[in-house]
Amino acid sequence: MTDTTPTRHSAGDAGVRQRMPYARRREQLLTAALGEFGRRGFHLTQMEHVASAAGVSKALLYQHFTSKDELFAEVTGAIVGELTARLHTAVAPHRSSAEGIRAMVRALFDYATEEPAGWALVILHLDKPKVGDDLRELRDRMGESFAGLLLRRRRADPGLSPAELAANERRARLLVPLLYGSIISMVSWWLEHPETPRARAEDMAVDFIWLGLDRIRSGERVRPD
């Protein structure tokens, strides 16, 4: 299928018509939308902003996406799919829990570096009411990945009773938001402070998570004065 609507050009290109295949035009519109949503946020982004960024008319944009909600869902769906695939690779069964956490940290740093617009959108919307619901799948999958790493050895321990395993499951669920929250914060901080070597930022994130978990697993607690 070919999009026969001309792309807008500068005055020097007046009268030049460019026909673009449907799939390529849709990809162009999604790229423009990602940039606008990542920069402005969902609520401040209007369809005319996306159309202008893509260099097309708003009418053409509506031919591909009937609403801003549909457009946002398409954009976030692609982000969820990409990040989920990266996290799935990071938590491969052959890795130990510590190696898996390091791989997850690296995967998030990689994504933020390679897809800055996508990362900006995640940061703006991950925990926002209503709008953040579109990213809930990503949040849930991140949580499942972390919980799986924390419980990998426990689930394989035949000496644990069902009650002990259930207690470990509950504790892991409580730790999950602390874990992905700390990593996301570290990645965002590093993007704003590129003078800090990335390897150092990654190591700090891994040490903070793994050493903190080790102290919790050993039963250490902060007691009230």
Describe the fold and architecture.
69% of the residues lie in helices and 2% in strands. It has 225 residues and is mainly α. Strands 1-2 form a two-stranded antiparallel ribbon. Helix 1 (22-40) packs across helix 6 (116-125), helix 5 packs across helix 6 (116-125) and helix 5 packs antiparallel against helix 9 (198-217). Residues 8-17 have low confidence and may be disordered.
Question: What key attributes describe this structure?
Answer:
225 residues; mainly alpha; Arc Repressor Mutant, subunit A; Tetracycline Repressor, domain 2; 2 domains; 69% helix; elongated; HTH_TetR; transcription cis-regulatory region binding
Quick structural overview:
The chain has helices at residues 22-40, 47-54, 58-64, 68-90, 97-114, 116-125, 136-155, 162-192, 198-217; strands spanning 2-3, 20-21. The protein has 225 residues and is mainly alpha-helical.
What's the helix and strand layout?
Elements: E1 2-3, E2 20-21, H1 22-40, H2 47-54, H3 58-64, H4 68-90, H5 97-114, H6 116-125, H7 136-155, H8 162-192, H9 198-217
Antiparallel strand pairs: 1-2
Domain HTH tetR-type: 23-83
Protein name: TetR family transcriptional regulator
InterPro entries: Homeodomain-like_sf, HTH-type_TetR-like_transc_reg, HTH_TetR, Tet_transcr_reg_TetR-rel_C_sf
